[in-house]
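Blinded run. Sample ID left blank on purpose so nobody reads anything into the name before looking at the predicted structure. Input follows.
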Amino acid sequence: MKNKLFKLLCIIVILYCTNLLSVSMVYNFRIAQITKQFNLENEENNTTIIALLYDEFFKKSTGETQNFAGPFGTLIFKHESFYLRMDTAYAHITNKKDNLITYSGNQTDDILFTLGYNFYKKHHHLMTFSGLFGLPTHKIHALQHTDFGYAQNSFGLQFDGSYSYNQDRKNILLYGARYIRFIPRIANDINDTKYKFSTGNLVDLFIANKNTFGNHGLEYGYTLKFDFGAKVYPNFSNIIEKINYIRSNFYAVYKYNFKIKDIENKLFLNLGYGFDHVPKTFGNKYIITLWGAWNITF
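Blinded prediction complete.
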């Protein structure tokens, strides 16, 4: 009986102290929208390779801090009105509480596939409908320590588009919406007790404005993220409800286009700031994201 009570106390502490809704770069809607535009707008070339380095810092309301840094890779193929995108990432993670390191390690993100179709394409307006499918690369660690990647199979739908204010496409409004469902999976806690765990549902809304000045570009925008329906069985619903979140993110990205031996290249430099509206007790007080990318299209 005492052993059962101890295990119950341990999992309650883990659920309270760990953010069950793990950090993932491949599911970052802003990065996906920013980096895919160059490929879809380029009429002649069909393949894009994106190499990205990022550093994301989280300051939680509890005083805990998390830092994720590493490389992110993307490959995009385009054929007529269709495109296929593959994303994956890697992170070095540092988790601190009261200036003491509580977790440090290296993990891989999920692998995310996106298949899309440009169903409406005019000079001023482009609209795309896409399906998404995610694959985990490791077990769920969220009931033990800080996790990178959702580590669950997922599927979803995405709608996005762009509208140009003028003929030369120098000023463009960007928008998008996305829904992703995560499939429950077995996860172990620190006592090696098995639980059926799911992140639940993820909804993203995106709006931005892009301006181009010769080879230079500036984009600034906003995303609103809803994560809801997280589940763990045996049930701890009173805790799970406090972990589901609503998050705002603002960003600005500078872009520079150039050619190397007739091959299209683009550099990106991004700064983002975000925070959680809910939960107040266990959410993120602020999130700072820095990343730079090199995009090659041929």
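Unblinding after everyone has recorded impressions. The first helix runs from residue 2 to 17.
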